[in-house]
Amino acid sequence: MDVSTRDLTLVRYRRHLSGGRASLGEMFGGDVEVHASGAWVRTRTGRELLNCGGYGVFITGARHPRVLAEVHAQLDRNPVATRLLLEPQAGLAAEALTALSPPGLDRVHFACSGTEAVEAALKLARANGRRHVVGMVNGYHGKTLGALSVTGKPLFQRPFQPLLPDVSHVPFGDHVALADELTRHGHGTVCVVVEPVQGEAGVVVPPSGYLRRVAELCRRHGALLVLDEVQTGLGRLGTWWGADREGVVPDVLLVGKALGGGVVPVSALVATDEAFAPFDRDPFIHTSTFSGYPLGMAAVRGALAAIEEDDLVGRADRLGRLLFDELGRLLHDLFGDRVAALRGAGLLIGVELAVDGLAGELLLELMAAGVIANHSLNSDRVLRLTPPAVLDDREVQFLLDAFERAARALL
Ligand code: PLP
After folding, report:
1. pTM strictly above 0.90
2. Which atom of ligand 1 is nearest to the CA of 377?
3. If you measure from the C-alpha of residue 15 to the centroid of ligand 1, how many angstroms do you get, rounded to a whole number?
4. What CATH topology corresponds to 25-56+311-409?
């Protein structure tokens, strides 16, 4: 093992990045990732780990050939634009994204991270006269100040207060609570921000019909509906969008993570003509240097093509059902009532443990067994699996075997 390289990486993390982050890396064995391909990540010591983590970025797996081909070609042509001339890639990416989005969402603002897409939505809401924001308890929307104000987790908010005024939170999945909240504000003054399935909250799936009711309530109260699909979009739930689960068309849809094909960062706000009007009138009212950068736009086209051509949405659905059943059986047999719940849709799967600390231990044992999983930022007791939709039969079996080994190590 290349101990010196590992140690130097740790030293650099401690010296220049974050000591806490260095300690976390040490806790996970201190190994250093150096290569990724498909569902696998290779470390400097030569270990191959099945990547079922990555916080939902890798629906296409790492370095999907379709994405790489577009990105390589654009890298050699024009990776970053002047922003004064017109440039073809942004329009092409917007056309491809809107063609796959719910009907009527024809306008796009590109950014780089999920939290920036949320910021754009909050500003668009204000520019449309919606000055009060209603978010959901335990909802996660990122950590820039605006997005953090809507992220419903006091632990992350407290050190940075005061945050945005005029933000309230209601329980997720409770349409009556939302109705009550909306009646407290004037017609046409509210923006509702919601995830179709809460990811970082620990994969919380709302009751059937909830999203449709949210959309109806927003219509009735003239509220702008922002659906944050940064984690759930692009096939993660086994449908193109979480919105499709209930045939909902929001005013604004937010996309990120998988949008750059796991190769470069890209996010987007996709909106109706009406909601987008303030940005349409004034292209300088909300800008960012790298918005719509050609390299990212090429990645978007590659990612969307890969998801379509490889039927990754259908695969996510089928694989998700299989994994859900098999993991459910394993967990029931091995952990019994130490598992509080198994939840999920498609390839967003959450295992809620009934005991404090067990989710962390399982995460460590999974890593030891060769599988990378996620913790959940807004829920300590939930281990989250976000495998790529490119897993083949052998990789599925590897995951299940590793999961069994990891669980047995904790008996
Ligand atoms: N919105 C949702 C639903 C997310 O899950 C996340 C990240 O996990 C974000 C927004 C923020 O995205 P980013 O971390 O790219 O800023």
Report:
1. yes
2. 8
3. 27
4. Aspartate Aminotransferase, domain 1 (3.90.1150)
